[in-house]
């Protein structure tokens, strides 16, 4: 049975993690590679790196980081933030990213989704959508949720699916940072209206919130940052609890060790 | 793992035919202590101890690339253990509904698209069951593997692992020295690494 996915998100600025330096027992928690390794060994199903740098060297710094992450971890990861061209995507995928996410650039130039999907395949194209409710209607926002658009969340989501997106990462700006739970009603509508996987983002505070977003929100995956970074919730506790709630989850098998007779020869 | 000796002459080859990201496989093998050679050269491929046939992307355009380089004639006649991964596995089948293309015809099964009863693509970790090959030595029944795909090989005679996504399908195939896995062992944590190790430990007959 396909499991639901738990995805820690790492915000990256100039090649370093932004939030949460004084947590986890890491030598250098500002090092995204070390943090990625920690999560991959502790049950994360996937990782998302969101680059928020604004410098001119950002492309090269990010490409270098992606290469180091790909060398180190054995689970899939997505890279997003400021990606606006086929060339950007090509560099990141060639350096070992499994998927890329596009956001504002897709709103400004929707044809980009078609180009990316036909060139690289839908399976590696995630469209991230930030939205919040204005007068009861979900409106897409740009630039990390700061700039409102006229686009309706559900119309835009259907359009990106039609254009070839393989997955949608939906962040509710109304819920993000509140720790009051995910936007389950909107998530359930997205999941029902569309036939591609939906990643829930924004609002994780408790284990119950994850249960709710998988059951009520019908989400295929749930993304969170600070609850994991500050060890308020560990991934293994969360997954055990979700399993008890009847949600399919992958647990790590710690017992697997290579014996002498099967060494490569 | 730290003291793994290098492979013998011929080594491990990853077929490089311009279809998708092969960096991940190269890195996964490196973590196991094995340096793979990326090549599209027939002699290097034929002389290898083991061959990995990767692939991410669209089936018909990948077949075009194989034909353009003549690899479509080379791959089905290889004698050493060959592991097709994801699209690589699908291309080893008779045909694919994706772009209505013929395949390399090693596995006697036709690859078809998932119905819209399920979300397409299937993305994430699914369990593998009914494990029937040395490829799965020390891998438990119901172990999770990472997959991302819209097309699948139905159950058939060559099925050596199955998974469920709306229907039961082949998550791994084998015929003689040819192995194929729909999932990405290079992205499937320690369980995936175990499968790569098992492949590397298969006896090569060349």
TrEMBL record, chain A:
<dbReference type="InterPro" id="IPR004651">
    <property type="entry name" value="HisF"/>
</dbReference>
<keyword id="KW-0028">Amino-acid biosynthesis</keyword>
<protein>
    <recommendedName>
        <fullName>Imidazole glycerol phosphate synthase subunit HisF</fullName>
        <ecNumber>4.3.2.10</ecNumber>
    </recommendedName>
</protein>
<comment type="subunit">
    <text>Heterodimer of HisH and HisF.</text>
</comment>
<dbReference type="GO" id="GO:0005737">
    <property type="term" value="C:cytoplasm"/>
</dbReference>
<keyword id="KW-0368">Histidine biosynthesis</keyword>
<comment type="function">
    <text>IGPS catalyzes the conversion of PRFAR and glutamine to IGP, AICAR and glutamate. The HisF subunit catalyzes the cyclization activity that produces IGP and AICAR from PRFAR using the ammonia provided by the HisH subunit.</text>
</comment>
<dbReference type="InterPro" id="IPR006062">
    <property type="entry name" value="His_biosynth"/>
</dbReference>
<feature type="active site">
    <location>
        <position position="130"/>
    </location>
</feature>
<dbReference type="InterPro" id="IPR011060">
    <property type="entry name" value="RibuloseP-bd_barrel"/>
</dbReference>
<dbReference type="GO" id="GO:0016829">
    <property type="term" value="F:lyase activity"/>
</dbReference>
<comment type="similarity">
    <text>Belongs to the HisA/HisF family.</text>
</comment>
<dbReference type="InterPro" id="IPR013785">
    <property type="entry name" value="Aldolase_TIM"/>
</dbReference>
<comment type="pathway">
    <text>Amino-acid biosynthesis; L-histidine biosynthesis; L-histidine from 5-phospho-alpha-D-ribose 1-diphosphate: step 5/9.</text>
</comment>
<dbReference type="InterPro" id="IPR050064">
    <property type="entry name" value="IGPS_HisA/HisF"/>
</dbReference>
<dbReference type="GO" id="GO:0000105">
    <property type="term" value="P:L-histidine biosynthetic process"/>
</dbReference>
<dbReference type="GO" id="GO:0000107">
    <property type="term" value="F:imidazoleglycerol-phosphate synthase activity"/>
</dbReference>
<keyword id="KW-0963">Cytoplasm</keyword>
<feature type="active site">
    <location>
        <position position="11"/>
    </location>
</feature>
<keyword id="KW-0456">Lyase</keyword>
<dbReference type="Pfam" id="PF00977">
    <property type="entry name" value="His_biosynth"/>
</dbReference>
UniProtKB/TrEMBL annotation, chain B:
<comment type="subunit">
    <text>Heterodimer of HisH and HisF.</text>
</comment>
<feature type="active site">
    <location>
        <position position="184"/>
    </location>
</feature>
<dbReference type="InterPro" id="IPR017926">
    <property type="entry name" value="GATASE"/>
</dbReference>
<keyword id="KW-0378">Hydrolase</keyword>
<dbReference type="InterPro" id="IPR010139">
    <property type="entry name" value="Imidazole-glycPsynth_HisH"/>
</dbReference>
<dbReference type="Pfam" id="PF00117">
    <property type="entry name" value="GATase"/>
</dbReference>
<dbReference type="GO" id="GO:0004359">
    <property type="term" value="F:glutaminase activity"/>
</dbReference>
<keyword id="KW-0456">Lyase</keyword>
<feature type="domain" description="Glutamine amidotransferase">
    <location>
        <begin position="13"/>
        <end position="200"/>
    </location>
</feature>
<dbReference type="GO" id="GO:0000105">
    <property type="term" value="P:L-histidine biosynthetic process"/>
</dbReference>
<dbReference type="InterPro" id="IPR029062">
    <property type="entry name" value="Class_I_gatase-like"/>
</dbReference>
<dbReference type="GO" id="GO:0005737">
    <property type="term" value="C:cytoplasm"/>
</dbReference>
<feature type="active site" description="Nucleophile">
    <location>
        <position position="86"/>
    </location>
</feature>
<keyword id="KW-0368">Histidine biosynthesis</keyword>
<feature type="active site">
    <location>
        <position position="186"/>
    </location>
</feature>
<dbReference type="GO" id="GO:0016829">
    <property type="term" value="F:lyase activity"/>
</dbReference>
<keyword id="KW-0963">Cytoplasm</keyword>
<comment type="pathway">
    <text>Amino-acid biosynthesis; L-histidine biosynthesis; L-histidine from 5-phospho-alpha-D-ribose 1-diphosphate: step 5/9.</text>
</comment>
<protein>
    <recommendedName>
        <fullName>Imidazole glycerol phosphate synthase subunit HisH</fullName>
        <ecNumber>4.3.2.10</ecNumber>
        <ecNumber>3.5.1.2</ecNumber>
    </recommendedName>
</protein>
<dbReference type="GO" id="GO:0000107">
    <property type="term" value="F:imidazoleglycerol-phosphate synthase activity"/>
</dbReference>
<keyword id="KW-0315">Glutamine amidotransferase</keyword>
<comment type="function">
    <text>IGPS catalyzes the conversion of PRFAR and glutamine to IGP, AICAR and glutamate. The HisH subunit catalyzes the hydrolysis of glutamine to glutamate and ammonia as part of the synthesis of IGP and AICAR. The resulting ammonia molecule is channeled to the active site of HisF.</text>
</comment>
């Amino acid at each position: 049975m396909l499991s639901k996915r738990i995805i820690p998100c790492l915000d990256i600025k100039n090649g370093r993690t932004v939030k949460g330096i004084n947590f986890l027992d890491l030598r250098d928690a500002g090092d995204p590679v070390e943090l990625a390794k920690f999560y991959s060994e502790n049950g994360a199903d996937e990782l998302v790196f969101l680059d928020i740098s604004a410098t001119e060297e950002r492309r090269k710094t990010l490409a270098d980081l992606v290469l180091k992450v790909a060398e180190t971890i054995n689970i899939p990861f997505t890279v997003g933030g400021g990606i606006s061209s086929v060339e950007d995507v090509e560099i990141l995928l060639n350096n070992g990213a499994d998927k890329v996410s596009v956001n504002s650039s897709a709103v400004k130039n929707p044809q980009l989704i078609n180009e990316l999907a036909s060139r690289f395949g839908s399976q590696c194209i995630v469209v991230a959508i930030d939205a919040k409710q204005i007068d009861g209607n979900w409106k897409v926002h740009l630039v990390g949720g700061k700039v409102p658009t006229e686009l309706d969340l559900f119309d835009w989501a259907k359009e990106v699916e039609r254009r070839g997106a393989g997955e949608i990462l939906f962040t509710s700006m109304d819920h993000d940072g509140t720790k009051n739970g995910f936007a389950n009603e909107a998530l359930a509508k997205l999941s029902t209206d569309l036939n591609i996987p939906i990643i829930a983002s924004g609002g994780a505070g408790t284990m119950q919130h994850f249960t709710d977003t998988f059951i009520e929100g019908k989400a295929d995956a749930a993304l969170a940052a600070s609850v994991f970074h500050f060890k308020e919730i560990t991934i293994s506790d969360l997954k055990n609890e979700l399993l008890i709630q009847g949600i399919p989850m992958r647990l790590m098998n710690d017992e697997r060790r290579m014996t002498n007779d099967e060494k490569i020869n | 793992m730290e003291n793994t000796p290098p492979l013998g002459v011929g080594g491990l080859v990853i077929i490089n035919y311009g279809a998708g990201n092969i960096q991940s496989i190269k890195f996964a093998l490196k973590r196991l202590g094995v340096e793979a050679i990326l090549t599209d050269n027939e002699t290097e491929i034929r002389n290898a101890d083991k061959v990995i046939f990767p692939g991410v992307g669209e089936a018909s355009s990948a077949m075009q690339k194989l034909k353009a380089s003549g690899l479509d004639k080379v791959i089905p006649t290889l004698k050493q253990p060959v592991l097709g991964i994801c699209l690589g596995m699908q291309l080893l089948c008779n045909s694919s509904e994706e772009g209505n293309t013929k395949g390399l015809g090693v596995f006697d099964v036709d690859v078809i698209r998932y119905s819209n009863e399920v979300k397409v693509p299937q993305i994430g970790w699914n369990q593998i069951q009914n494990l029937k090959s040395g490829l799965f030595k020390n891998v438990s029944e119901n172990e999770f593997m990472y997959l991302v795909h819209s097309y699948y090989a139905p159950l058939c005679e060559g099925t050596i692992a199955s998974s469920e996504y709306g229907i039961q399908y082949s998550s791994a195939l084998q015929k003689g020295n040819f192995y194929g896995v729909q999932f990405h062992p290079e992205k499937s944590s320690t369980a995936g690494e175990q499968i790569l190790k098992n492949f590397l430990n298969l006896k090569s007959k060349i």
